[in-house]
Amino acid sequence: MSRKVRRATVISTTAIAPHLKRLVVGSDEFHDFPADQQGAYVKVLLPHTGQDEVEIDLKAAEPAPKRSYTIRAIDTINHTITLDFVVNQHRGIATDWAKQAKAGDKLAIAGPGPKKLDDFSQLQYLMIADLTSVNAINGYLQQLPATADVDVIIHVADSQDIIRLDTIEAHTQHRIKWLVTTEPQTELVEQIADYLNHYIDTPLIFMGLEGSLVRTIQNLAKEHFAVPSAKIVCSAYWKRGIDADGKQAL
């Protein structure tokens, strides 16, 4: 990803769902932030515990804690970007910071990095997400052609976590299903198997999920439905029990 780091300030915070907090962050340094990056990711750099200022030198002796987040929206006029943080599910540096974040708090943004999915030429797509990757789906839905047959399935543990996506109403072949379950290892996998069993064309699969779930679905698609590796774009957005630094999560 681009190594450019921009200082920023929290402009506003909104609890949009029980497990999602939306932060709008702004900076005059966003004046050259590219406008077409919805669905791409940035690295959010946070202050060290007990500090207000953020270390922006990525090679510093004690670099800032940083985590990847997907862009929900970009406002090139007001020089802001919008990010959603998963809260009230797990503990960690970024989660704890976001839960307490308020207007005026300082952070920094590095990036944007490349989008995980960059092939928008296929006839059939199956896109699988949870709350950590829902904004990647939101961004891709703006770019997939209206003629593509698109199934989206997003699993959440609470029906109140279902949020509005920026779909294009004219794209009538784009279907979104929210699966409310606390057992995605069984219920989500069963749903995906049902989708794959009914496709005539081999879909391009995008998934952004917990690591072990990514492996399960990837193996299912390859071994039982002969989906080639070239048609699977996957990213483990998080790993159960492990934080982003590879340590046991609290």
Provide tags for this entry.
single chain; 250 residues; alpha/beta; Elongation Factor Tu (Ef-tu), domain 3; Rossmann fold; 2 domains; six-stranded antiparallel barrel; five-stranded parallel β-sheet; 4 helices; 11 strands; 33% strand; globular; disordered C terminus; FNR_nucleotide-bd; Siderophore-interacting protein; SIP_rossman_dom
Give the topology, please:
Elements: E1 5-17, E2 20-26, E3 41-45, E4 66-75, E5 80-86, H1 93-100, E6 106-110, E7 124-129, H2 134-140, E8 149-156, E9 174-180, H3 187-198, E10 204-210, H4 211-225, E11 232-238
Parallel strand pairs: 7-8, 7-10, 8-9, 10-11
Antiparallel strand pairs: 1-2, 1-6, 2-5, 3-4, 3-6, 4-5
Helix pairs in contact: 3-4
Protein name: Siderophore-interacting protein
InterPro entries: FAD-bd_FR_type, FNR_nucleotide-bd, Riboflavin_synthase-like_b-brl, SIP_FAD-bd, SIP_fam, SIP_rossman_dom
Family: Belongs to the SIP oxidoreductase family.
Outline type: globular
Q: Determine the mean pLDDT.
A: 92
Q: Into which percentage range does the β-strand content fall?
A: 25-35%
Q: What low-confidence regions span 5 or more consecutive residues with pLDDT below 50? A: 244-250
Question: How many helical stretches?
Answer: 4
